[in-house]
């Protein structure tokens, strides 16, 4: 509610129409999406298969993690938190987010792994109040479910945050700190990341509503240290 109030305009004048043409951002987004590897595409197909034609369970992300684990993937739920400082007065904004983390063993080396991010609702993270038509079209081209590397996601964040800034400016709206790329990146790339293990209750079967979760104390920094030790 606070975000909508800040980003909305109190006047009753109609929202400005975007300037015609720039399809450049959409083309860039399409290029980024087409960079998906075969492994990323296969994983996305798996995730979509899990949730297709089923009633939404109470904990969708936990359900997907469980199904990935059942199919042999090293998957976990990541919960990030961060503090973002803004301006000369060092105003701090705290945030938290969760997404699915999947570690894929490199086919050419059993000692190296690739980290893929699965976000079940990526598009909603970039929605704006009163967006311009250009920004609407860009958002609509963004998949709701994203599966990809950190590099690809970072490209999407940079592109969408830049487009959001242009949309807000065109509507003469203030650009809040949580719309900046640095803040958005913290959702997926924060060093303060807890991995949550998802376990199936054997007494209750595989119903999506019978998931148990437990939070580990492993941080992203510790994960990188362990990964480096393995590769060494």
Mean pLDDT equals 76
Largest sheet: 6 strands, antiparallel
Counting H and I runs of at least 4 residues, what is the number of helices? 8
- How does the helix and strand content classify structurally? alpha+beta
Total DSSP E strands? 6
Overall tally of domains: 1
Order of SSEs, N→C?
A: HHHHEEEHEHHEEH
The helical percent reads 25-40%
Features:
alpha+beta, 39% helix, six-stranded antiparallel beta sheet
Could you characterize what this model shows?
Mean pLDDT is 76; it is low at 1-16 and 201-232. The chain is built from 8 helices and 6 strands. By secondary structure, it is of the alpha+beta class. The chain has a 6-stranded antiparallel beta sheet, with helices on both faces. It has one domain (22-231).
Secondary structure layout:
Elements: H1 2-7, H2 24-33, H3 38-51, H4 60-70, E1 74-86, E2 91-105, E3 113-119, H5 133-140, E4 146-149, H6 150-170, H7 181-189, E5 193-200, E6 211-215, H8 220-231
Antiparallel strand pairs: 1-2, 1-5, 2-3, 3-4, 5-6
Helix pairs in contact: 2-6, 3-4, 5-6, 6-7
Summarize the structure.
The protein has helices at residues 2-7, 24-33, 38-51, 60-70, 133-140, 150-170, 181-189, 220-231, and strands at 74-86, 91-105, 113-119, 146-149, 193-200, 211-215. With 232 residues, it is of the alpha+beta class. It has one domain.
């Amino acid at each position: 509610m606070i975000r909508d109030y800040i980003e909305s305009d109190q006047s009753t004048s109609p929202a400005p129409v975007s300037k015609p043409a720039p399809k450049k951002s959409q083309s860039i987004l399409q290029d980024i999406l087409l960079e998906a590897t075969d492994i990323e595409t296969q994983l996305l197909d798996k995730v979509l298969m899990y949730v297709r034609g089923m009633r939404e369970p109470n904990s969708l992300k936990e359900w997907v993690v469980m199904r990935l684990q059942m199919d042999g993937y090293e998957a976990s739920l990541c919960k990030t938190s961060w503090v973002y400082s803004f301006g000369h007065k060092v105003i701090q904004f705290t945030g938290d987010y969760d997404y699915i983390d999947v570690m894929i063993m490199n086919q050419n080396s059993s000692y190296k792994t690739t980290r893929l991010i699965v976000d079940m609702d990526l598009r909603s993270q970039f929605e704006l109040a009163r967006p311009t038509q250009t920004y609407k079209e860009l958002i609509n081209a963004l998949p709701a479910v994203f599966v990809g590397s950190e590099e690809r996601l970072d490209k999407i964040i940079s592109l969408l945050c830049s487009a959001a800034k242009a949309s807000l400016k065109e509507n003469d709206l203030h650009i809040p700190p949580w719309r900046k790329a640095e803040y958005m990146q913290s959702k997926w790339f924060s060093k303060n990341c807890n991995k949550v293990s998802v376990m199936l209750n054997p007494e209750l079967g595989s119903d999506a509503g019978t998931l148990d979760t437990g939070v580990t104390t492993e941080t992203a920094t510790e994960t990188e240290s362990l990964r480096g030790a393995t590769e060494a």
